[in-house]
């Protein structure tokens, strides 16, 4: 029987994102703080539709706004790791990255009573050490890579990509990759921002046009795969705005009408591991 899974995932960055970027003036900080407004709207919407979602929460957010995160725990949502700060792992040393993961994991365990099993890299930018550290710390899945749009797969260790030679591919490991896509992320569609290098992300798209893309991707998966997973990535400070909440609710209704099964990413990782079988490792 066909099974088409929708993962509603949320990166609850709050203040950690502007702080990591070094934008410490009042306006960017207030944009991050709006995430508290947005996450409460999202929590209520998910409760109405009886959906358990996955929230990737930096340790900084957990320790700064424990009541907001505790409310998510009480509603049965998965709290997964998003680092302690929102710094890119590729910009950290191996020891700094390990410290981030350990501190973030401890914060999640304190507030949820559970050790996190899932990780998403800030800015979806892993380092050469990330996979080894996740395996060392007992993580079951990552959600930072983009090697497929509908099918989870095992992460690979030991790839080589020399400039003047063919790529070499390493060994699949005991870490399920639940892939993501910028096209299924609210930030590039909606958020106006300027990078430190001066590049502009225009954002501010019509929510109806974006919704058409998101629903069409699910419809394509349902048409072409008997089993598949689509992962949507939202940020409360982005999608918590009124008209974008309308988009999220319309998306949920379309997915439900299309027969989608909603699941947390931890649940998907378990199901995918069973389907994929043991890794070569």
Report what the structure shows.
- With 281 residues, the protein is of the alpha/beta class.
- It has eleven helices and eleven strands.
- α8 (207-224) packs parallel to α10.
Break the fold down into its secondary structure elements and pairings.
Blueprint lengths: L2 E9 L4 H6 L4 H24 L4 E4 L1 H6 L1 H9 L3 E4 L12 H19 L5 E2 L10 H7 L4 E2 L10 E5 L13 E7 L8 H5 L2 E2 L5 E2 L5 H18 L2 E8 L1 H4 L2 H16 L3 E2 L2 H12 L5
Parallel strand pairs: 1-2, 1-10, 1-11, 2-3, 4-5, 5-7
Antiparallel strand pairs: 6-7, 8-9
Helix pairs in contact: 8-10
How many domain regions?
Answer: 1
Number of strands: 11
Helix segment tally = 11
Broad shape: globular
Q: Strand percentage, roughly? A: 15-25%
CATH architecture annotation: Alpha-Beta Barrel
- CATH fold category name: TIM Barrel
SSE arrangement, N to C: EHHEHHEHEHEEEHEEHEHHEH
Rg is 18 Å
- Mean pLDDT over the residues: 96
What structural keywords apply?
PgdA-like; 11 strands; 281 residues; five-stranded parallel sheet; NODB_dom; single chain; Chitooligosaccharide deacetylase; Glyco_hydro/deAcase_b/a-brl; TIM Barrel; alpha/beta
């Amino acid at each position: 029987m066909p099974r088409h899974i929708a993962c509603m995932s949320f990166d609850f960055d709050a203040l950690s994102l502007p702080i990591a970027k070094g934008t410490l003036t009042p306006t960017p900080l207030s944009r991050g703080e709006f995430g508290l407004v947005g996450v409460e709207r999202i929590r209520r919407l998910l409760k109405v539709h009886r959906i358990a979602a996955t929230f990737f929460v930096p340790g900084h957010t957990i320790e700064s706004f424990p009541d907001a995160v505790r409310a998510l725990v009480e509603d049965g949502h998965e709290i997964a790791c998003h680092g302690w700060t929102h710094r890119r792992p590729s910009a950290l040393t191996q020891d700094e990255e390990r410290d981030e993961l350990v501190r973030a994991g401890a914060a999640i365990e304190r507030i949820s009573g559970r050790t996190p099993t899932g990780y998403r890299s800030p800015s979806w930018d892993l380092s050469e050490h990330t996979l080894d550290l996740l395996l060392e710390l007992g993580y079951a899945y990552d959600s930072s890579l983009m090697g497929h749009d509908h099918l989870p797969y095992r992460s690979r260790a030991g790839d080589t990509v020399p400039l003047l030679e063919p790529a070499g591919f390493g060994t699949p490991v005991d870490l399920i990759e639940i892939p993501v896509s910028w096209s299924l992320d609210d930030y590039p569609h909606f958020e106006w921002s300027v990078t430190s290098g001066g590049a502009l992300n225009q954002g501010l798209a019509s929510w109806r046009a974006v919704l058409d893309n998101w629903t069409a991707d699910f419809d394509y998966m349902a048409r072409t795969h008997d089993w598949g997973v689509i992962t949507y990535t939202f940020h409360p400070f982005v999608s918590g705005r009124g008209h974008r909440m309308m988009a999220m609710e319309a998306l949920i209704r379309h997915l439900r009408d299309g027969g989608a099964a909603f699941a947390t990413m931890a649940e998907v990782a378990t199901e995918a591991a069973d389907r994929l079988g043991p890794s070569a490792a």
